[in-house]
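Changelog entry: the LysR family transcriptional regulator record was regenerated in this release. Current contents:
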Amino acid sequence: MELRHLRSFLTVARERNFTRAAALLHIAQPPLSLRIRELEEDIGVRLFERSTRHVDLTPAGVAFQQRVTELLMLLDRAVEDARRAHDGLTGTLRIGYTGRASHAVLPQLIGELRLKLPDVRLDLVGPGSSGPLAAELLRGNVDVALCFLPVQGESVRTRSLSEVEFVVALPATHRLASRAKVPIKVLREEPFVAYPADQGLRLREAVDDECERAGFLPRVVKEASTSQVLLCLVAAGTGVAIIPREIQDLDAIEGVVCREIEPQPRRLAHGIAWREDNPNPALRRLLELDAVSVGIRPAGGRLPPGTD
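Regenerated structure tokens:
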């Protein structure tokens, strides 16, 4: 029994006429009659009562017609589902993201996905730090990572969606607070408060790199994993901190001032990373979205508790 037998049966059952059914199937009448005989032999029952004037379904044919109709509807649906999955219109996207991504990139990206790919299920992983997220990407546990760049690895591709500028946060009573710009080299002897060094935080790595370029490593006396706590430590006089410029737009924390750094530190890119060898068709669709192909350049504003 083949699919052509079933489709031929349904056409004859609908038309109640072999000549018309053969024309609709684009075959001659004798091959159509042969298909029906072969089907009846496979099943072991007669499906049609034939006469020179009439073709009628037997009771067995009526029952068979109902189930075959349901079967072919399911088959058509399966074919459509397979095509949609191949085209990336269904399936699952695993998206890892940092706290910073949850502020601007992720909401816009989810909005576009819901609008343009409503049948793609989203599996959100985060917020996490850029280092661990990059490791998850390389292991194939996420399809994309919204994180700080670069991300190194075989077949990894990235796009920058925004950049981070740095300023120095000082206690309001600090001797350098009256200056419009602070040379980074004069911070050599200052106590620092900073993001943790052992959590793969690109913000901490960037701060260490900038200080090292100036000829010293920051003397970190206290670490904090959130920007709010970091600023509170600065306000308390625990130390100074090099932070993303946008963090100064948080709810005002009394006792903290932010100043430009000389020379201006290198900007830190934040964007999307994926593996070129990832076979997930929905990934290709995601990369075509405006939020990713055009890019997002947030103008600062309130950040979530975790910013890496």
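Residues 91-163+269-293 form a domain with the D-Maltodextrin-Binding Protein; domain 2 fold (CATH 3.40.190.10).
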